[in-house]
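Quick illustration, no need to memorize.
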Amino acid sequence: MNIFSYDGGPVTLNIWNDWVWHMVYSSTNTGLIEVWHNNKLLLRRKGPNTYAQDKHYPYFKWGIYKWGWSYTVRPPAVKNRVLFFSDVRVAGPSGNYQSVYPERLPENAVPVKSPKIKQ
């Protein structure tokens, strides 16, 4: 399997961005990755996308990945980052693009911050 990265271009901040990921995990040429951003296909890549010797099946996760927050070098300048999720849908083998594409929110819809949770 060849490891690759893909730059999907800039993302407009302070508006909702719709993403659809279609993944067929495979260590053979039957693997598939398709990514849409705001109803535009950004990536279609066929071929292996996992290792044959994986002990655990692949899984999909997302979030804010900021390794510098581990304070290994110096404290980060930004102390707080916020990421909102809405309308997350997962389909099985018979799912299709239409079954998972998010319903459009009104143009004036604004994310609402959750109250801070004391730890």
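Residues 25 and 57 are 9 Å apart (CA to CA).
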